[in-house]
Design brief:
This protein is mainly β. It is built from 1 helix and 11 strands.
């Protein structure tokens, strides 16, 4: 699956050094999950979250990035898969402390009528590098993104958001939509 930070960051998410979470909502189910993500006393750590909403399901995933006890780096990759007629709502609250960096790497695939609702809130004092990639693979798949931030002092917030309609028919429904083809 493509992600916002790209394949160059795959080395950060090697299985032997990464904490993993798997969440899913079964067909027709509505489910909510909250994950508290931090690095504890480690100076460098990484995590990977995989979330799947089966056909007709609704899944809300809250990710709270806690401040660490010391300066350091945290890399988190979230892979989302919204199957036919399902919806995933990803809520990310990033509260890194001063001297703490976060690489937030999100990738999502939405099937027919699948949707990703993304809400990100950046508070705290740590630098955040945020990459989001969404593939709208079928007709009527959608992405809605809301990103809010409060930066302090010299804090950095770098965000890259890409949405790729992979089928030509998606582009034909909205002739005003801008994409890589022009």
């Amino acid at each position: 699956m493509n992600t916002g930070a790209g394949k160059e960051t795959d080395v950060l998410f090697a299985p032997e050094q990464t904490k993993n979470w798997n969440v899913s909502a079964k067909e027709g189910q509505t489910k909510q999950v909250t994950l508290s993500i931090g690095q504890g006393k480690e100076t460098v750590s990484s995590g990977k979250i995989r979330a799947v909403a089966e056909e007709g399901a609704s899944l809300t995933v809250f990710e709270v990035f806690e401040p660490a006890q010391a300066a350091g780096q945290l890399a988190v990759r979230t892979e989302l898969y919204a199957k036919k007629d399902s919806r995933i709502r990803l809520v990310q609250v990033m509260m890194r402390g001063e001297g703490q960096e976060l690489l937030n790497d999100v990738g999502c695939i939405c099937e027919e009528n699948g949707a990703l609702d993304l809400l990100q809130v950046v508070v705290g004092k740590g630098d955040v590098y945020d990459g989001i990639w969404t593939e709208l693979q079928k007709d009527h798949a959608s992405l809605q993104a809301e990103i809010g931030y409060l930066l302090q002092n010299q804090q950095k917030f770098d965000v890259n958001l890409e949405c790729a309609p992979l089928r030509k028919s998606n582009r034909e429904h909205d002739p005003g939509r801008r994409n890589a083809d022009g």
